[in-house]
Amino acid sequence: xAAKKLVFLLDDMPILSKLYxxxxxxxxxxxxxxxxxxxxxSDLLKRPKKPACLVxxxxxxxxxxxxxxxxKLRDEPDYQRVPIIMLTANPSCEEDARTAGAxxxxxxxxxxxxxxxxxxxxxxx
Length: 125
What we know:
Low-confidence stretches: none
Mean pLDDT: 94
CATH superfamily: Response regulator
Number of domains: 1
CATH architecture: 3-Layer(aba) Sandwich
CATH class: Alpha Beta
Radius of gyration: 13 Å
Largest sheet: 5 strands, parallel
Number of helices: 5
Oligomer: single chain
Distance between the termini: 18 Å
CATH topology: Rossmann fold
Strand content: 15-25%
Structural class: alpha/beta
Order of helices and strands: EHEHEHEHEH
Shape: globular
């Protein structure tokens, strides 16, 4: 049996992280959840196996926004090709997220079926 793909979630709202995690688990994914950009960056850099996909909220605790974290990760050789999906309640930052290297963008609250479809698509490669 193939190992489950890991989706790494950064969101400062635990209830949303739990919801996303439960929905993704029903679709065969494992998840790792962090709540701050600094914790996310540190955790991701020391992982021996990279996640199949990153889901980053824009407005999070820590020294960086999710967009700044996305840009910083894109500068890391190990994360140049890992799919990154940005989430935010603020639709006006989509262009900034895409410029930073995001592969997809969702405005919260997002439709969970569309969210899973995009994760399926970006992790299928």
